[in-house]
């Protein structure tokens, strides 16, 4: 069980801080079931999540050492391969849903690679690719910012060169 003040990754909501643990109160009450009351780190939304729920991805934020190791290994992470163009968006969604930083890097690399190919063909990147790249970057950079103790705005500049290393 997490403690008040812990930083966690909560599903697709990304980085959150646990503000309280207990039964729901007010209009949301109805049982003695325990819930985490969390605030998202970057949008300041409040989330209530059951303490005992196998359905919800809830994991601790990576440590600084884990973040540094991930960035060191980022150049070796292969881009996501989407075999079927029709499945591309679903593959992105599935990767985002895992909450795995490695999967987020794979998505970002795949989209960046695809953007390059499209530019060479005289085409723009797709709105779908832009949307999924932003979702993956927001989630990855949000967690890295907390783990590394730097502002989220500075993460992309620090991380981008490591992600775009030649494969």
Class from secondary-structure proportions = alpha+beta
Average pLDDT rating:
89
General form = globular
- The ordered string of helix (H) and strand (E) elements is EEEEEHHHHH
Q: What is the terminal separation in angstroms?
A: 40 Å
Residue share in helix: 40-55%
What report would you give on this structure?
This protein is of the alpha+beta class. Helices cover 45% and strands 16% of the residues. It has a 5-stranded antiparallel β-sheet with strand order 4-3-2-1-5. The longest helix is centred in the last third of the chain and has 22 residues, at 127-148.
Task: Produce the secondary structure layout.
Blueprint lengths: L6 E4 L3 E9 L12 E6 L5 E5 L7 E3 L3 H10 L14 H11 L2 H20 L6 H22 L3 H12 L4
Antiparallel strand pairs: 1-2, 1-5, 2-3, 3-4
Summarize the structure in short:
The protein is built from five helices and five strands. The protein has helices at residues 64-73, 88-98, 101-120, 127-148, 152-163; strands at 7-10, 14-22, 35-40, 46-50, 58-60.
